[in-house]
Amino acid sequence: MKCPYCHHDETQVIDTRISEEGDSIRRRRRCSSCDKRFTTYERIELAMPVIVKKNGSRSEYESSKLRASLMLALRKRPVSAEAVDTAIQHIEEKLLASGEREIISGHLGELVMRELKRLDKIAYIRFASVYKSFEDVSEFVEAIQEVKKNSRA
Question: Which residue range or ranges hold the ATP-cone domain (predicted)?
């Protein structure tokens, strides 16, 4: 680790502690050249998979895009911000658990639809109508019947 003051390459770890949350390690270091002390943190870096779109192009996963899609489907629906955060967390956990470096956008869409179906049936129908490119009313009716059938089960 380089010293931030003199840029010397050799530093010594004086103290190591785990953060209160348990998600990082705090290290106190001392430069062997200028004798100054500084703190570094180690955190786990989890890489989300790259999203492969229908046309074959690839883009980085962006949580903000996922949130925007959910919020659009949930517009004017009685769903709390906490519930949306939990849904996003579930989707991201599934993406990470897959262990894949690339994920097809269709798979991400299916994960979103699963969470929306759990959160709000109307939002699910809204999202499905765009995601599945409904062409006529019969496709809406089929989706609504599916939701009704699953609600009774």
Answer: 49-139
- Output the DSSP codes for 56-97: S-EE---HHHHHHHHHHHTTTS---HHHHHHHHHHHHHHHHH
Quote the CA–CA distance of 61 and 134 in Å, as a whole number: 26
Asked if residue 43 lies in contact with residue 19, where contact means CB atoms within 8 angstroms, the answer is: no
Q: Is 113 helix (H, G, I), strand (E, B) or coil?
A: helix
Q: Indicate the pairing of strand 11-18 with strand 24-31.
A: antiparallel
Residue 117: closest CA among 80, 85, 73, 76: 73
Per-residue tokens: 89? 């967390």
Q: Would you say the pTM of this structure is higher than 0.90?
A: no
Give the amino acid at 120.
D
Kindly report, residue by residue over 113-145, the tens digit of the pLDDT: 999 989 988 888 888 877 666 677 777 677 777
